[in-house]
Amino acid sequence: MIQSPIIETNQLVKQFGAFIAVDHISFEVATGEIFGFLGANGAGKTTAIRMLTGLLKPSGGNARVLGFDVYTQSELIKASIGYMSQRFSLYEDLTPMENIRFYGGIYGMSKQKIELRADEILGELNLTSFKDQLVKSLPLGWKQKLAFSVSILHRPALVFLDEPTGGVDPITRREFWELIMRYAHEGHTIFVTTHYLDEAEYCNRVSIMVDGKIAALGTPGDLKQSFQSVNMEEVFLRLVGNPVS
Amino acid sequence: MNAQLKTFLAFVRKEWRHIFRDRKTLLILFGMPIAQMLIFGFALSNEVKNSSIAVLDQSKDEISQQLIARLDASKYFDIVEHLQYSQQIEAAFKKGKVRLVIVFPPQFAKNLESQHEIGIQLISDASDTNVGSTLVAYAQAILNEYQKELLGRRSLPYSFKTELRMIYNPQLNASYNFVPGVMAMILLLICALMTSVTIVREKEMGNMEVLLVSPVRPVMVILSKTIPYLFLSIINIVSILLLSYFVLNVPLKGSIILLLAVGILFIITSLSLGIFISSMAKTQTVAMFVSLVGLFLPTLMFSGFLFPIDNMPLPMQIISNAVPSKWFFFIVKSIMIKGLGLSEIWRECLILLGMTIFLFFISIRKFDLRLKI
Amino acid sequence: MTIIWTLIRKEFAQFFRDSANIRMLLVMPVIQLIVLPLVADYEVKNVRLCIVDQDHSTYTFRLIEKLRANHHFIIQSAVPHFGDALKKLDKDEADVVLVIPENFEQSITLDQEPSLSACINAVNGQRASVGGQYLLQVLQDFNMELRLQWIQFPRFKPVPLLKVEYSYWFNPEMNYQHFMVPGILVILVTMVGFILSALNLVKEKEMGTIEQINVSPIKKYQFILGKLVPFWIFSQIVLSIGLLIAFVIYGIVPSGTIGLIYLFSSVYLMAILGAGLLVSTFTETQQQTMLIAFFFMMVCILLSGLYTPIESMPSWAQQFNYINPVAYFVKIMRMIIMKGSSFSDILPSLLSVAVMAIFLIAWAIRSYRKNY
């Protein structure tokens, strides 16, 4: 059975005045994939993700997320996805419990379900003793993990993660990815942007954006082979045209 | 030293760009004094005129009609309702339609002729005591005119006249009082409020550390933030003066140079206060709140601009002496409207200068000490 | 509905956690209501007279005593020369210089109608004109006294006299504070409502927390209402504290029903909060919002008839007040508190403000963008 892609874009463009941030990108993401959207800072990743989540209207091209059109059905998209950004996800002046209750309420979850999931999450992350302290007082790594758990509170089929591991130590990063992969293995799709190229190894497929265009697309293995590289960092460097000794 | 100066100027340029790019704020910063001047100059006047009044004419004869016509013709009154019964008086007031009700008793002309004395009742809505008493005074004046005509003499015997001369402001132009006040308000707003919020914003956003780590001394960082507002304020003072002179016809009797000098002095005062507040506030909301309640409001209240200081209870009058804007207000008034020079007001200028120097140094010190936060 | 409730609950949790907010809610009413009325006294009193008495007769002595006895005036000094007196005006030591010419008493008795001259510092126009009126009244009274000494009525051909009696309703003690306090209550509630609501939304924009809202299925009207309701409640709390203070400290008991005050404030707050949220949909930083909000508020408050009567304003200002909710509330508040106006009295204003509220809230919802 051919499953239609959960995300599909066709010649998607975003222009800010004369500056073209996203330059005619086309790609598809299949259900259940962990899709990595790699690229340097300023390559256009965040702009792309904001278009897919309905936060930004494209300047041109098409895109469908969960079968919904990003131009006309953005609200329907929002009802069915999860989102977490590095800039912000949780209210710092609320407790973990209050944040969970808030987001649960937003996505229409019942009270019992919210309480149940809250216990699960807090237990998993070892945050039970922190549940009534302000999020502000949690260390960054725990905040990020909590933020991720909250973003999947309502079990969305598709989660968008925008640079979720920024500024976090390597161990926490690995723990974070364990959480992501566990969620993916339950059949959910993950769309994650990052500038940590080593995280590409966790993904099923990756695309690398350079100056607003998709310069490479494929599984990490395929890309390493095509670019005769040992790791994704080399792939990237070759792509960008820097000679590797 | 030269390198320090260059870096300082670079900071100033950066701050200037920040401010300049924020068009909305700039618009308000320039538009507000203009709007205030126009409102104060043209719209706000304590002169009472066109007041809606009602008459209850219980006789409706020639004389009462005549008097009513005179009242209506006067620029002070606008007869909007002719009541029929005295029970309607209270309702008319309660609806908020009239401020004064004039009652003419029945058989007015007849009784005037026969009994030589007839009473007219003025019922005034004293919610606003000043307007209430003023309307009564105006009505009395009109009726007294008529009284004089009745007597057929130019004036009563054994009289003396009184000439009232209004000094400094013959047309009783309300803006004379307001212009210095508007100046003080705008300067405080720009220099204290904006400065403190700008500085605290950097603190809140976390950018402050970056600046403090640069080779420029912290004091310079702070000062670089205040310089653009200094210029903006000078432009505002000039525009206020131009507006008041050309559009509102407020005189500029004294020395303009002295005026500008005092203006700049007050700018420095306000900037110091802004810096002081920013050293204490952790978030922008707090900075704004403290600026408004701790600075702006007392200025409004105690400077003598909106509310007369002489009317305040003694403790308040004493407090008002500690408010820099009170002195600024007095000095500007004296220069602009009374045309006094330095020789007459040097005492007040000295006080303001002293306050400014004091505030400037303690605020810089406070900021230096609070660097950790 | 649950979504709105969820949003409201979050606002409450955030608001009360920040102690600065609680302090503000309590401190604002106290400061405004306690300090402002003490300070905002426009009653004309303590007018300082400097008398230049060039006659030194019994008449002038009596006149000075009469002036001294009048509670509006203070005899600041008596100087022999006019020039010295003017200097006192310059230095703001005196407000009025009264010059009694030579041979004043003699001229009166000879029916020569002498002239007193009063020079009034008119920088504060209102104080000058009202003060001038008071002075004239005292002088006229004095003149009448003198006249009656000389004239007995039967000696004169009977002449019709208009006797004018006046009475002051609703505020017989001419208590200026009773007049100011209702107005200050309006300012209080307006400031809290308008500025708080505007700042709150912009803060979320500035901090970036609004993105999480925008990416969720929350509808625009749910978001706006979710902001409106909590701040509506906070503002009503402030109003209640204000009314309490007005009662405790000034003994002001509304002549009308308190329920009417709340009815009007409920609708009024919808308009004010709507306006605040509307402003914040256009601004990006708290600083901008603060300035713009302050600007609009100041214009509305100044023109609202709080300080100066609306009838004295030029027609453009009066036209503006048709869409100035503050003007309505100031008027209504005074009407209810001081005159005991009823529901039917306030209905026209209530409807006008309701229309404004609907318009502003709808515009705010429309103007808020979940995507760009």
Give the secondary structure arrangement, pairings included:
The complex is a heterotrimer of chains A (245), B (373) and C (372).
Chain A: E1 7-16, E2 19-29, E3 34-39, H1 45-52, E4 60-65, E5 68-69, H2 74-80, E6 81-85, H3 96-106, H4 111-124, H5 140-151, E7 158-162, H6 170-185, E8 189-194, E9 205-210, E10 213-218, H7 220-226, H8 232-240
Parallel strand pairs in A: 3-8, 3-9, 6-7, 7-8
Antiparallel strand pairs in A: 1-2, 1-4, 4-5, 9-10
Helix pairs in contact in A: 3-4, 5-6
Chain B: H1 2-21, H2 23-43, E1 51-57, H3 62-73, E2 77-83, H4 87-94, E3 100-104, H5 108-115, E4 117-125, H6 129-151, E5 161-167, H7 175-205, H8 208-213, H9 218-247, H10 256-280, H11 284-302, H12 314-320, H13 324-338, H14 342-369
Parallel strand pairs in B: 1-2, 1-3
Antiparallel strand pairs in B: 3-4
Chain C: H1 2-17, H2 19-39, E1 47-53, H3 58-69, E2 73-78, H4 82-90, E3 96-100, H5 104-109, E4 115-121, H6 125-150, E5 161-169, H7 176-207, H8 210-214, H9 220-250, H10 258-282, H11 286-302, H12 315-320, H13 325-339, H14 343-367
Helix pairs in contact in C: 1-9, 2-7, 2-9, 7-9, 7-10, 7-11, 7-13, 9-10, 9-14, 10-13, 10-14, 13-14
